């Protein structure tokens, strides 16, 4: 008999793991999605066997197979079906607010619903990224109180974090090691059994606290490294050098086993950091430490890195102002700026915490006329207007501001772009999108993050 699995939250984490579990011979899977204005459409879309995530290899075929052919995956908004589940996976968003405090509204609500509909023997797994201590000190008490059941006696609870990245969701789930942190050994073992039916790589069992800490440290490590690259970019700008040439030279130091040269992997700097994880996980780390740590620790490096990355949109806008001063454009309300890219990462439809929103709001406060373009992102996913008509966005603009390095932009004919724009056209390249020499030769005023030699 097939084990019954519910996956709560049909997003970038919930959809692929639900579909992969449904593609085994072990599970009948039900996805649960609220009928919200932003995401409710996914219920019917998925039940038709269609993939709501764009440019995601293997996922459309997988969804079609498990929905249409195998009929082992359906989606509903009926939370009461949890009473009949062997496994419940929680994949809801855990954002932070303007004060960098985690907002667990969805997580608390879902935990309450799980408790109210929980059957004995059910294994509950949190896949959403949480501050260290959340599974044990927030989720567990809510479920126990709502259900009247005891963890490790009547039900089992674990934290098993995802390592997905848009553009390779299926690959990452299948091929990366899975860390499973249990509230007790038996919880870890029962949760691990589920993943063993799908994963091709190893499963590592540990405590929930350790797994939660490992997850936020994993992303904080990346955030700190990006901040280092961004800081070097500012140095390169000031000294009239090209940070991308510097990066190649730094990273070409060979790694030789036993010879003492560790890998160098200086990251690519840019206009800002986005996505669901990197912008909040350092704050989740700090929050967990503040709430549950036995000793206070001053997170100077981690916090400074986060603020460096948060400041990059503002810095990149300063490059725009330099160009405007060169051309004596001072009446901002008469100037049109075309923002290219809304997704937080190239060739994706994911706009969560996109730097574009920060840039848009900062420029809007200065009275610029703004148009944003992205042919992949849905309008209902963002709170500012976007268009999928690239020519219309660029036409009659004073400057184009590249925020996401979609391949569509890399393929642009700059001569054609110039013909659409006003005289003395400006390019602000927040990513590595255009060839600076080509742009300047065509008559563009060009600025790019970390490329000081192209700045007067």
Q: What does this 3D model show about the protein?
A:
This protein has 456 residues and is α/β, with parallel strands linked by helices. The protein folds into three domains: 3-206, 3-Layer(aba) Sandwich (Rossmann fold); 216-309, N-(1-d-carboxylethyl)-l-norvaline Dehydrogenase, domain 2; 312-454, Rossmann fold (3-Layer(aba) Sandwich), CATH 3.40.50. Helices cover 40% and strands 14% of the residues. It is built from 17 helices and 14 strands. The protein has helices at 14-22, 42-47, 59-69, 105-116, 134-147, 169-175, 185-196, 208-239, 243-251, 281-292, 300-310, 312-326, 355-365, 390-394, 407-410, 414-420, 436-441; strands at 3-8, 27-32, 73-76, 87-90, 123-126, 156-160, 178-182, 203-207, 336-340, 369-373, 386-387, 399-402, 426-429, 445-448. The strands form two sheets. The protein has an eight-stranded mixed beta sheet, with helices on both faces. The protein has a six-stranded parallel beta sheet with strand order 11-10-9-12-13-14. Strand 5, helix 5 and strand 6 form a beta-alpha-beta unit. The protein starts with a strand and ends in an 8-residue tail after the last strand. The mean pLDDT is 95.
